[in-house]
Amino acid sequence: MTERDSQRSALYAAERLVHNVFERASAGSGALTIAGTSMTLPPEARFGSVDSVRTYVDRVLAMTTVAAQFPRAQVPVTVRTRRGQRQAHYEYNPAGGAGVIAVPVADDRWAMRELVVLHELAHHLSPGSATDKHGPLFAGTLIDLVGLVLGPEAALVYRITFGDSGIGVA
Questions:
Q1: Is 88 inside any structural domain?
Q2: What is the residue-wise DSSP string for the chain?
Q3: What is the pTM (predicted TM-score) of this model?
Q4: 66 in any annotated domain
Q5: Would the pLDDT of 108 be above 70?
């Protein structure tokens, strides 16, 4: 019997809020105030092909800060096209080997954005990815990864939004 992914819906809803914050910030100067803190968010990358996602994932895994924080950064990730779907997903390898990130490239290319790719990569890096799914370990991994890649301001947006949404973070 598989364990219930009880935090999934709430985490997805919180991430939609984060995506909206990034979209609004990018429409202007990037400056915003959240929870009384003024900051400027970095621009979010958008990808035009599976190859560009693959290159990005390889570069993130090669970052010394990512490798130092996450032992699974040494384990490769394959990136492939996901056909017939609008959402990206991560395929966990139960043997501990290479994982797979599948991204759809049709329609509106919603999944071809940096925050979505970092979400899927966090599944790969999370120490409990086989059982934790979207639980507290995953949420903490995602926040830490966003902080290392996009900076502390982006991580703070996630931390505040997850906290306000009742998302457990380990």
A1: yes
A2: -PPP-TTHHHHHHHHHHHHHHHHHHHHTTSEEEETTEEEEPPPPPB-SSHHHHHHHHHHHHH-HHHHHH-GGGGS-EEEEE-TT-SS-EEE--TTS--EEEEE--STT-TT-BHHHHHHHHHHHH-TTHHHHTTSHHHHHHHHHHHHHHH-HHHHHHHHHHHHHTT----
A3: 0.92
A4: yes
A5: no
